């Protein structure tokens, strides 16, 4: 399991929703916004009413890095990929990375998004984790799909749980102001060499930590992820092979193939909504977070919606819908909260784009009852048949925060939990966090751990949300899939570029908060034929005049003052 | 004689339970024999048990209906609930922006789009939905055998207890692009028909869903009104040679008239509330252009975008317009000789 997959997958509905939301981050992040002046500045020296984590002052907030690889990966990380582990697991030889219980037995309440059906609060997995960490963690799992709606209300109350997990795409509206206002500064516990008390946290890459700086303080515990795009065009390799379909290498090839595949009468369509893949294949700047959408073009900052590539990608996606090759369910847009898995398994459509974790989770899900089923990832093609330009996503997108009201003992207990959950692959802590208790939650046969029914119920989300190790893909049960996933990331990583504000945690000033709210909706209207591409052009010029150009100046100043995160 | 002194004099003069007419004598020309003329203190003493019994309900109404109205003040602010743990403190510290939020509303085409969708849906539902429960009630009322009647009532009520998620999922399975209807058409060589994602017919679809789900439930009030009609009237009418239709026209419908008028007034007051969950669930299927109504507009801006002041302003506008509508409808009811929601 990768740390990503651990949380993103694990249930049949979990992955699609999570990553679905992850990629809707455009909307939520677009909704996202600035801080009120009083709590604004991130980093050290940013303009008033917003901020970034890239300033020079940020450097001394970051925990110092100390690698602790326990098991050498079979596929080392390259081009921004996760590290891959394909080998059989030596259960008896698992290392111990947290030799003594750091927890002091305190009670810690955690509110976290949950994709799927949460288990009972008193279950064997939670008990075992609490035993191992020495902390009595009480989970308040909330539906991940509607998390943004609950989050705002909980943070506005006086009753904030000790720990609140907030995904980056839920940081819309005034949530950034709540983060700086309601959550504790973890700097005194983690900055610099302080982190050495927690060796597994010290091994979390610095890029991920840099994303945890909110309002000029280190406030979050990260879930690191690969910066290579998480959206893979997934297809039914078994049916492709049988029918002799070739994986397309350009936008036109895809459309032609899609027409070939579609036979509505036989209840077969080519694909689902391919908008995210269109953005990647046409080289559109990332929409997973607003700051990533800005980049320097010929010395001038340009936002993704202003680019030709953006319009071309929308037009191509519109063509797919208009050609009738898209499964009718996709017309419903986000209101079809149904899991596409069963219809994909039934062959109603052969291609869809989703989070990479589904490559493995769908395989595992179907392995028993559907032996022919083979899901595989297409390489992201360049729209013209050449090499694609793919823009990097952020190296961490989910954060756990500790309430400002929590006493030091609680903060220490939370860090004790985090040190266990961030343990790397090959340790006892990793196995317990990601697989649960051997015999109860998983069984091992020939070095391959397989989750039991109870394991699939209990060991889902929860603890992995507190903190995770460096990006890892480890599925000894399907070594070929693991290898393919890592190699896909490495191949795509070679085409991946980082835009100007990559790696920073940026908060736009409040007055621009609602500026980009409607773009995602408009995209969906256009590709489904309800609006025209010219409507988008009008929206973009509105955006410019209503503050987009000022926002450009604001970003310009940020760039001039702070430089890039990687510089 | 000033109004305030009258009661005091009378309280001393009249026994607590004195006939109301006595007050007429005291003030000279007898106006009306209303109980309102009995002095307040007397009435308080007389009704104190009843008043005490209403007190808990009154407190609840105050606490949950009236106190929150004060929160509308954030419509004049750029409200940030995260300034403090305490909502009141947050209000005190949020910046005031005057009527800026209202100016934004006026200039926001999305708001006017929501208004027009809301009104269109209201009229559609008024014409297509409102009469159906009345017809169903008449129909049920004409069923004589109690078991058939109970069964049909149960069948009609049942959809009311389904959640909107379920109702829409069922509609999707039947009428969606890959639903039963479409596949049937395709099997017979026609093109598929996707009713669920057609923005042009969306309002009809929403009305149809509402009718399917709630029309049965709506008959309860009418059935109660029908039950109160004395069978003597029907017998007398029948004796006079009135046929089925004449009995319905001259006996049944007049009996229903006050209830119909009352419900109509209430419905008009609710005109701007045309189904929140139902529409939110289908918002993305047809896009906000066809589906956004005032309630989803407020939700989208307040809860999703956390533009609380703006959403509050939109909600306030909706509230004020609704109040105006209910008063106007009530007036019309009075002109028609009905009671409406309150008496003058």
From TrEMBL, chain A:
One Pfam family of this chain: SBP_bac_8
SUPFAM superfamilies registered for this protein in UniProt: Periplasmic binding protein-like II
Organism: Streptomyces doudnae
Subcellular location: Cell envelope
Protein name, per record: Extracellular solute-binding protein
Family annotation (Gene3D superfamilies): Periplasmic binding protein-like II
Similarity annotation: Belongs to the bacterial solute-binding protein 1 family.
GO cellular component term, pick one: cell envelope
Keywords of this entry: Signal, Transport
Primary location: other
TrEMBL record, chain B:
Pfam families recorded: BPD_transp_1
Start and end residues of each stretch annotated as Disordered: 1-34
Parts of the chain that traverse the membrane: 49-69, 119-140, 161-181, 215-234, 255-276, 308-329
GO CC annotations, alphabetized: plasma membrane
Keywords assigned: Cell membrane, Membrane, Transmembrane, Transmembrane helix, Transport
UniProt keyword annotation of Transport present: yes
InterPro entries in UniProt: MetI-like, MetI-like_sf, UgpAE/MalFG_permease
PROSITE patterns in the record: ABC_TM1 (PS50928)
Primary residence: membrane
Extent of Low complexity compositional bias: 20-30
ABC transmembrane type-1 domain location: 115-329
Classification via SUPFAM superfamilies: MetI-like
Coiled-coil ranges from the UniProt annotation: none
Location relative to the cell: Cell membrane
Membrane-protein topology: Multi-pass membrane protein
Family affiliation: Belongs to the binding-protein-dependent transport system permease family.
Protein name per its UniProtKB record: ABC transporter permease subunit
Originating organism: Streptomyces doudnae
């Amino acid at each position: 399991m990768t740390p990503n997959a651990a949380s993103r997958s694990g249930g049949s509905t979990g992955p699609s929703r999570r990553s679905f939301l992850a990629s809707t981050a455009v909307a939520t992040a677009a909704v996202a916004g600035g801080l009120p002046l009083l709590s604004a500045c991130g980093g050290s020296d940013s303009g008033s009413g917003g901020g970034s984590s890239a300033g020079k002052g940020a450097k001394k907030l970051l925990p110092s890095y100390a690698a602790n690889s326990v098991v050498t990966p079979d596929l080392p990380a390259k081009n921004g990929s996760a590290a891959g582990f394909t080998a059989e697991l030596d259960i008896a030889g698992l290392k111990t990375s947290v030799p003594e219980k750091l927890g002091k037995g305190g009670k810690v309440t955690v509110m976290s998004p949950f994709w799927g059906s949460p288990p009972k609060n008193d279950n064997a997995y939670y008990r075992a984790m609490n035993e191992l960490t020495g902390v009595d963690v009480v989970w308040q799992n909330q539906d991940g799909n509607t998390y943004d709606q609950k989050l705002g209300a909980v943070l506005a109350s006086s009753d904030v749980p000790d720990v609140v997990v907030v995904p980056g795409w839920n940081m819309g509206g005034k949530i950034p102001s709540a983060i700086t206002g309601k959550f504790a500064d973890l700097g005194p516990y983690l900055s610099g060499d302080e982190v050495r008390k927690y060796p597994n946290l010290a091994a979390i890459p610095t890029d991920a930590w840099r994303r945890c700086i909110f309002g000029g303080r280190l406030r979050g515990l990260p879930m690191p992820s690969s910066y290579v795009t998480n959206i893979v065009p997934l297809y039914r390799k078994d049916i492709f092979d049988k029918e002799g379909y070739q994986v397309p290498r350009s936008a036109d090839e895809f459309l032609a193939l899609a027409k070939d595949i579609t036979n509505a009468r036989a209840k077969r369509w080519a694909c689902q909504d391919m908008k995210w893949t269109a953005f990647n294949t046409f080289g559109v700047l990332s929409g997973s977070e607003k700051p990533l959408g800005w980049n320097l073009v010929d010395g001038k900052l340009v936002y993704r919606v202003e680019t030709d590539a953006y319009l071309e990608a929308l037009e191509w996606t519109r063509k797919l819908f208009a050609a009738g090759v898209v499964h009718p369910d996709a017309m419903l847009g986000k209101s079809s909260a149904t899991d596409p898995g069963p219809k994909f398994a039934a062959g109603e459509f052969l291609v869809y784009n989703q989070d990479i974790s589904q490559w493995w989770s769908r395989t595992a899900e179907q392995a028993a009852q559907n032996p022919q089923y083979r899901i595989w990832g297409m390489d992201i093609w360049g729209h013209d048949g050449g090499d694609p330009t793919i823009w990097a996503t952020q190296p961490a997108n989910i954060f756990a925060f500790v309430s400002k009201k929590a006493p030091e003992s609680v903060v220490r207990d939370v860090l004790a939990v985090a040190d266990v959950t961030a343990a790397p692959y090959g340790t006892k802590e990793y196995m317990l966090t990601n697989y649960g208790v051997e015999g109860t939650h998983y069984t091992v046969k020939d070095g391959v751990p397989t989750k039991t029914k109870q394991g699939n119920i209990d060991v889902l989300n929860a603890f992995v949300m507190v903190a995770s190790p460096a990006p890892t893909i480890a599925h000894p049960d399907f070594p070929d899939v693991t290898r393919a996933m890592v190699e896909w990331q490495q191949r795509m990583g070679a085409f991946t570029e980082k835009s100007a504000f990559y790696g920073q945690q940026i908060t736009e000033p409040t007055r621009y908060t609602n500026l980009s709210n409607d773009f995602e909706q408009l995209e969906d209207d256009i590709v489904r034929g309800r609006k025209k591409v010219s409507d988008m052009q009008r929206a973009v010029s509105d955006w410019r005049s209503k503050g987009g150009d000022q926002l450009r100046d604001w970003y310009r100043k940020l760039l001039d003052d702070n430089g890039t995160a990687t510089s | 004689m000033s109004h305030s002194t009258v009661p005091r004099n009378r309280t001393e003069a009249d026994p607590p339970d004195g006939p109301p007419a006595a007050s007429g004598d005291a003030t000279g020309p007898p106006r009306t024999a209303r109980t309102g003329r009995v002095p307040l203190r007397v009435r308080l003493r007389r009704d104190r048990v009843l008043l005490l019994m209403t007190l808990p309900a009154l407190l609840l109404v105050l606490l949950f209906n009236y106190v929150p109205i004060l929160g509308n003040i954030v419509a004049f602010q750029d409200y940030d609930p995260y300034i403090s743990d305490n909502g009141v403190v947050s209000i005190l510290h949020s910046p005031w922006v005057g009527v800026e939020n209202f100016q934004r509303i006026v200039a926001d085409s999305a708001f006017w789009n929501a208004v027009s969708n809301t009104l269109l849906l209201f009229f559609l539902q008024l014409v297509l939905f409102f009469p159906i429960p009345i017809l169903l009630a008449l129909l049920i009322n004409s069923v004589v055998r109690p078991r058939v009647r109970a069964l049909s009532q149960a069948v009609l009520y049942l959809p009311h207890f389904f959640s909107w998620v379920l109702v829409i999922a069922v509609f999707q399975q039947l009428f969606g692009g890959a639903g039963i209807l479409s596949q049937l058409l395709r099997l017979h060589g026609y093109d598929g028909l996707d009713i669920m994602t057609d923005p042009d017919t969306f309002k009809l679809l929403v009305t149809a869903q509402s009718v399917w789900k709630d029309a049965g439930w709506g008959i309860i009030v009418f059935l109660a009104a029908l039950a109160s009609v004395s069978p003597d009237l029907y017998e007398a009418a029948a004796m006079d040679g009135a046929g089925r239709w004449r009995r319905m026209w001259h006996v049944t419908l007049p009996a229903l008239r006050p209830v119909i008028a009352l419900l109509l007034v209430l419905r008009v007051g609710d005109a701007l509330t045309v189904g929140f969950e139902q529409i939110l669930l289908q918002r993305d299927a047809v896009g906000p252009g066809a589906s956004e109504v005032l309630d989803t507009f407020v939700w989208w801006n307040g809860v999703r975008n956390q533009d609380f002041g703006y959403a509050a302003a939109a909600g306030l506008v909706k509230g004020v317009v609704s109040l105006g509508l209910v008063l106007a409808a009530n007036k019309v009811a009075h002109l028609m000789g009905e009671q409406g929601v309150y008496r003058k």
